[in-house]
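Minutes, project huddle
Topic: does the predicted pose make sense with protoporphyrin IX containing FE bound?
PN asked that the exact inputs be recorded in the minutes so nobody has to dig through chat later. Recorded below.
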Amino acid sequence: MSEYTLSQVAQHKSKKDCWLVIDGRVLNVAKFLEEHPGGEEVLIELAGKDATQAFKEIGHSKSAQKLLLKYQVGVLKGYTFKNDADVQVASIQEPKKKEMSAFVINDDHMPKYAALVEFFLPLLVAGSYLSYRCLTA
Ligand code: HEM
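Predicted holo structure (tokens), as shared on screen:
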């Protein structure tokens, strides 16, 4: 993946050649300008600059974060990613894994436990009631 300095990114600030940086990723958003739900103006205003803060302040969704990857043309020179260049992908996929493991626990253990309680609890109640009636008769 190519590396660019911020001054190299700054040379791409026209509507037809519109680059910006988000989280150390260099993005060419020229083809995304018209599609952006937040309008093209905000992107053009930040063209050639680091738009990380603005992007985060909006609270963009997970799908918006994934969309960043589609427009990536390189990485910012000197930017240190937490793990590796794909840290963003990893952090996007992480919640999915957590959802899956929670789902497996729910699906696997809880119903068995619940079935046991559902079966024995009424028997216990009925048994206790009958014993009480026999003893007090
Ligand atoms: C390549 C970079 C960007 C992508 C892929 C992107 C994508 C999106 C998407 C998919 C949405 C719809 C809402 C959501 O899913 O969160 C959105 C909304 C929006 N975006 Fe971006 N965006 C980018 C950069 C920016 C930047 C740099 C700004 C700067 C301020 C910005 C401002 C907004 C605003 C104001 C909205 C509308 C929020 C609303 O109406 O609730 N976006 N963007």
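Observations noted during the meeting:
- Residues 89-97 have pLDDT under 50 and may be disordered.
- The pocket of protoporphyrin IX containing FE is lined by residues 22, 27, 29, 32, 36-38, 42-43, 46, 51, 54-55, 58, 60-61, 63-64, 67-68, 71 (CB under 6 Å).
No decisions taken; revisit at the next huddle.
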